[in-house]
Amino acid sequence: MNYVYSLKCRDGYYIGCTDDLKDRVERHKKGYVSATRKRLPMELDFYFAIKDKYKAFEFEKYLKSGSGRTFIKRHLILYSTSRRSDK
Protein backbone atom coordinates (compact mmCIF):
# COMPACT_ATOMS: atom_id res chain seq x y z
CA MET A 1 0.00 0.00 0.00
CA ASN A 2 1.15 3.55 -0.73
CA TYR A 3 0.17 6.58 1.30
CA VAL A 4 -0.20 10.23 0.38
CA TYR A 5 -0.12 12.16 3.63
CA SER A 6 -0.25 15.65 5.09
CA LEU A 7 1.62 16.84 8.15
CA LYS A 8 0.52 19.88 10.12
CA CYS A 9 3.79 21.70 10.77
CA ARG A 10 4.68 24.70 12.89
CA ASP A 11 4.47 26.94 9.80
CA GLY A 12 1.80 25.23 7.67
CA TYR A 13 1.40 21.89 5.93
CA TYR A 14 3.66 19.36 4.23
CA ILE A 15 2.47 16.82 1.64
CA GLY A 16 4.38 13.58 1.06
CA CYS A 17 4.13 10.04 -0.29
CA THR A 18 5.50 6.79 1.15
CA ASP A 19 4.94 3.04 1.30
CA ASP A 20 5.56 2.95 5.10
CA LEU A 21 3.49 5.68 6.73
CA LYS A 22 4.33 4.94 10.37
CA ASP A 23 8.10 4.94 9.76
CA ARG A 24 7.98 8.03 7.55
CA VAL A 25 6.01 10.09 10.07
CA GLU A 26 8.43 9.06 12.83
CA ARG A 27 11.37 10.12 10.66
CA HIS A 28 9.73 13.51 10.11
CA LYS A 29 9.07 13.94 13.86
CA LYS A 30 12.67 13.06 14.76
CA GLY A 31 14.05 15.60 12.28
CA TYR A 32 15.57 13.04 9.89
CA VAL A 33 13.82 14.52 6.82
CA SER A 34 15.55 17.65 5.56
CA ALA A 35 12.37 19.12 4.02
CA THR A 36 10.66 19.31 7.43
CA ARG A 37 13.56 19.41 9.89
CA LYS A 38 13.17 23.14 10.59
CA ARG A 39 9.36 22.99 10.70
CA LEU A 40 8.95 20.99 13.93
CA PRO A 41 6.80 20.21 15.83
CA MET A 42 4.37 18.41 13.54
CA GLU A 43 1.57 15.88 13.54
CA LEU A 44 -0.12 13.72 10.95
CA ASP A 45 -3.21 15.57 9.70
CA PHE A 46 -4.62 13.13 7.11
CA TYR A 47 -3.62 10.41 4.68
CA PHE A 48 -4.97 8.48 1.72
CA ALA A 49 -4.14 4.80 1.13
CA ILE A 50 -3.67 3.99 -2.57
CA LYS A 51 -2.75 0.58 -3.97
CA ASP A 52 -1.12 1.78 -7.19
CA LYS A 53 2.27 3.43 -6.56
CA TYR A 54 2.06 5.62 -9.66
CA LYS A 55 -1.44 6.85 -8.83
CA ALA A 56 -0.21 7.73 -5.34
CA PHE A 57 2.65 9.82 -6.76
CA GLU A 58 0.28 11.52 -9.21
CA PHE A 59 -2.13 12.33 -6.37
CA GLU A 60 0.74 13.75 -4.29
CA LYS A 61 1.75 15.91 -7.25
CA TYR A 62 -1.86 17.12 -7.63
CA LEU A 63 -2.15 18.01 -3.92
CA LYS A 64 1.02 20.11 -4.22
CA SER A 65 -0.43 22.05 -7.18
CA GLY A 66 -2.52 25.20 -6.83
CA SER A 67 -5.82 23.41 -7.41
CA GLY A 68 -4.77 20.58 -5.09
CA ARG A 69 -4.00 23.01 -2.27
CA THR A 70 -7.40 24.63 -2.83
CA PHE A 71 -9.00 21.17 -2.63
CA ILE A 72 -7.23 20.51 0.69
CA LYS A 73 -8.27 23.84 2.17
CA ARG A 74 -11.85 23.55 1.01
CA HIS A 75 -12.56 19.88 1.75
CA LEU A 76 -10.07 18.45 4.19
CA ILE A 77 -8.55 21.06 6.49
CA LEU A 78 -11.79 22.95 7.10
CA TYR A 79 -13.64 19.67 7.64
CA SER A 80 -11.09 18.28 10.09
CA THR A 81 -11.00 21.58 11.99
CA SER A 82 -14.79 21.70 12.31
CA ARG A 83 -14.93 18.04 13.36
CA ARG A 84 -12.35 18.66 16.12
CA SER A 85 -14.41 21.52 17.52
CA ASP A 86 -17.48 19.24 17.68
CA LYS A 87 -15.81 17.07 20.34
Structure annotation, total helices? 3
Strand content: 25-35%
In terms of structural class, how would the helical and strand content be classed? alpha+beta
Q: Under the CATH scheme, which architecture would be assigned?
A: 3-Layer(aba) Sandwich
**Physical arrangement of strands within the biggest beta sheet:** 2-1-3
Largest sheet: 3 strands, antiparallel
Task: Note the gap between the termini.
Answer: 31 Å
Q: What's the total number of strands? A: 3
CATH topology: GIY-YIG endonuclease
* Average of pLDDT: 88
- Would you identify the regions where 5 or more consecutive residues have pLDDT less than 50? 80-87
Helix content percent band: 40-55%
Classified by CATH, the class is: Alpha Beta
Query: Could you give the order of the helices and strands?
Result: EEHEHH
What is the global morphology? Answer: globular
Rounded to an integer, what's the Rg over CA atoms? Answer: 13 Å
CATH superfamily: GIY-YIG endonuclease
Number of spatially distinct domains: 1
Family: Belongs to the UPF0213 family.
InterPro entries: GIY-YIG_endonuc, GIY-YIG_endonuc_sf, UPF0213_domain
Protein name: GIY-YIG domain-containing protein
Organism: Candidatus Portnoybacteria bacterium RBG_19FT_COMBO_36_7
Give a structural overview.
Residues 1-73 form the GIY-YIG domain. Belongs to the UPF0213 family. InterPro entries: GIY-YIG_endonuc (IPR000305), GIY-YIG_endonuc_sf (IPR035901), UPF0213_domain (IPR050190). It comes from Candidatus Portnoybacteria bacterium RBG_19FT_COMBO_36_7. This is GIY-YIG domain-containing protein. There is one protein chain. With 87 residues, this protein is of the alpha+beta class. It has a single domain (2-86), classed as GIY-YIG endonuclease. It is built from 3 helices and 3 strands; from the N terminus they run ββαβαα. Strands 2-1-3 form a 3-stranded antiparallel beta sheet, sandwiched between helices. Residues 80-87 have low confidence and may be disordered.
